[in-house]
Amino acid sequence: MAVISTKPKSVLAWNNGKWGPSGSFPYRVRFGENWWKIAAKDGWTDVWGFIEFNFRTRNAAEVNWYLDAFVGCTLVAPDGNNLCFSDNLKPGIIYTRHELQPELPPPTYPIPMPTPSGGSDSAGPGEPPLNGCWVGLGVKVGGMAGPVELDGVNCTLLASNRPELQVRRSAHREERRD
Fold first, then answer.
1. Are the C-beta atoms of residues 133 and 160 closer than 8 Å to each other?
2. Among 156, 160, 176, 153, which residue's Cα sits nearest to residue 168?
């Protein structure tokens, strides 16, 4: 099966991606969402009314054309005839009557890491908070030559924000004779 798509005779004005109805709110679609779920969140009882609110058509082939050209959908629905919503679409926007996704300010960098609660590795008074990041590397080598077995372990732990934790190395070497 192939997606049914037809360019409408009278296409909505693109308007730099702000093609939605006057007074509407942009809504970024996500994988797993569909027209019915978003329409219900926005207070619609008629899903085709919600689709028509967005694209001024109830023709499924024209809706697929708008989903491709205006929303950026490429994922084919299980029915094989229609496009469906997914993540990371460009622009990935439809329009709703109510503000369902408040506009969040862009993140400020660096984004603070959560700090651990309690425990011996938590920061003390006057110390910078731990950021919860660490990297560990361990290597075990060994071998046996006749009756002698040699095992060795080297470890390095790197952690930030705490000078005493920045680099720790340990070595263990064991020689056994049978």
1. yes
2. 156
DSSP letter string, 113-164: PPPP-SSTTS--TTSPPP-S-EEEEEEEEEEEETTEEEEEEEEEEEESS-GG
Looking at the DSSP bridge assignments, the partners of residue 139 are 154
Q: Has this prediction a pTM greater than 0.85?
A: no
Per residue in 44-82, pLDDT (tens digit) is 999 999 999 999 999 999 999 999 999 999 999 988 999
Return phi, psi of residue 113, to 5°: -85, 150
Residue 106: Cβ within 10 Å count? 6
DSSP class of 70: I
Cα 82 to Cα 78: distance, rounded to the nearest angstrom: 8
Spell out the domain ranges in the chain: 15-96, 134-177
d(CA 37, CA 100): 12
